Amino acid sequence: MWEYAPAPESRDIANLKPSYRMFVDGEFVEGAGEPLKTVNPATEEVLAEVSTASKDDVDRAVRAARRAYERVWGRMPGAERAKYIYRIARMMAERARELAVLESLDNGKPIRESRDVDVPTASAHFFYHAGWADKLAYAGLGPDPKPLGVAGQVIPWNFPLLMAAWKIAPALACGNTVVLKPAETTPLTALVLAEIVQQAELPPGVVNILPGAGDVGAELVSHAGVDKVAFTGSTEVGKLIQRSLAGRGKKLTLELGGKAANVVFDDAPLDQAVEGIVNGIFFNQGHVCCAGSRLLVQESVADELIEKLHARISTLRIGDPLDKNTDVGAINSREQLTRITSLVEAGEQEGAEKWVSPCPLPDKGFFFAPTVFSGVSQAMRIAREEIFGPVLSVLTFRTPDEAVAKANNTPYGLSAGIWTEKGSRILWMADKLRAGVVWANTFNRFDPTAPFGGYQESGFGREGGRAGLEAYLDV
Ligand code: NAP
Ligand code: MG
């Protein structure tokens, strides 16, 4: 392997400001909550101070969203709403470099990913849903489907801008107004999206963005003025929300955790599978709800595949997220780093065999070297719990039936992968795997036209595609 010269993006492109304010009723305003400091996880430096919402601010935002819904947005013809949504999509594309650099600074993900995946896919979500705004009568959900009203939305830190787009675009297209709370560690790109919303001249109150910690999220989802709750985050908090909303008549969708099986059969093209496995677990440092965190490999090719995997993973470059050559960036927070470390220790204690990439790590910042556990058994914590980091657990199987049984042996059910030359086997497996998304001979592909969502403890409801519209319409 040859060495690459560093090729960092300039952080000036991010137009980073020393402070950011929340966005309510079309204005940037100071929140009455305790301001938070958002950190660059690759350097541990404070990037900016961000004002947060108090209980009264949540109330004000929900009231603004209600007014906007009743007076303007809810009754606007779909073709008119579409113009605004297209405008947001175009402005995001115009500011793509700025958004990508800002996302990498605030989140720690490699610029290659924020530039090539997060930002273009976020813009694509607005484009796609803008197209639906005047065609809702043809979505198969009745001749004249109506919006729900005010949507309260809470998102996690792993895809800050993309999750905001997944939430806001369908809500607006269906005629709802929104109040969204970004994650505490990654509020910045959602606030630039608010700037875009303002510049696109959306009527005040249609979109409101409230930074803050979990208490702001809890306040928002339980507010009596919210008609629909959409939450993406941990299964633990999802259950809490579902419990608190029980019997209150609010429509709810939950996109929660996962522990996906990536299943490799002995007839699979192994070199191609290696690329898919690496992408499946090391993309976004493994901070991906649908990450292929459990590799199930047919016993006869296990040794060969693991050897190829180690060789490939050894070439991954870990470090500066702004460097265009970086493959694996920083872990988003110290808390997450601690969680990953403790689960890896549990894996060692339970007797799995640990292999760690020999790559050098930066001295500063939150980094974790790509790690592979082999000899993993189903009862181990590293086979059952979501690690949400760059750690792969390898299990083996002998027959297709055993592969299905092991793949489905999880409380989750968000995604799965199948690697085989046989089309019939792909269809047979896809039919039996209890997962919302099944990829065949690829992994981690996202497209606004394809519905995404889970079974069991991965949540319910779909985002994206025609199915995703249902969550924002009164059907
Ligand atoms: P989390 O702790 O559940 O946080 C998610 C969001 O909820 C954050 O904005 C958080 O605020 C907020 N929150 C915390 N407590 C709350 C409460 N009681 N009521 C309302 N909101 C509350 O999850 P995370 O650790 O940030 O994110 C990782 C998890 O998200 C993983 O389990 C992952 O699998 C899941 N995820 C799922 C999908 C999917 O589509 N299925 C996509 C991405 C991630 P703070 O930021 O202040 O804590
Ligand atoms: Mg941050």
Overview of the molecule:
The protein is of the alpha/beta class. It has 2 domains: 11-255 and 455-474, Aldehyde Dehydrogenase, Chain A, domain 1 (3-Layer(aba) Sandwich), CATH 3.40.605; 261-440, Aldehyde Dehydrogenase, Chain A, domain 2. The protein is built from 15 helices and 18 strands. It has helices spanning 55-71, 78-94, 96-107, 111-132, 160-173, 188-199, 214-222, 235-245, 270-282, 299-313, 334-349, 381-384, 400-407, 423-432, 465-469, and strands at residues 19-20, 22-24, 27-29, 36-39, 46-50, 150-154, 177-181, 207-209, 228-232, 251-255, 261-264, 294-298, 353-356, 371-374, 391-397, 415-419, 437-440, 459-460. A 7-stranded mixed beta sheet has the order 13-14-15-12-11-16-17, with helices on both faces. It has a 6-stranded mixed beta sheet with strand order 8-7-6-9-10-18, with helices on both faces. Helix 6 links the parallel strand 7 and strand 8. Helix 2 (78-94) packs antiparallel against helix 4 (111-132), helix 3 crosses helix 4 and helix 9 packs across helix 10 (299-313). The longest helix is centred in the first third of the chain and has 22 residues, at 111-132. It is globular. The N and C termini lie far apart (57 Å). Magnesium ion is lined by residues 38-39, 106, 185-186.
Give a brief outline of the structure.
The protein has helices at residues 55-71, 78-94, 96-107, 111-132, 160-173, 188-199, 214-222, 235-245, 270-282, 299-313, 334-349, 381-384, 400-407, 423-432, 465-469, and strands at 19-20, 22-24, 27-29, 36-39, 46-50, 150-154, 177-181, 207-209, 228-232, 251-255, 261-264, 294-298, 353-356, 371-374, 391-397, 415-419, 437-440, 459-460.
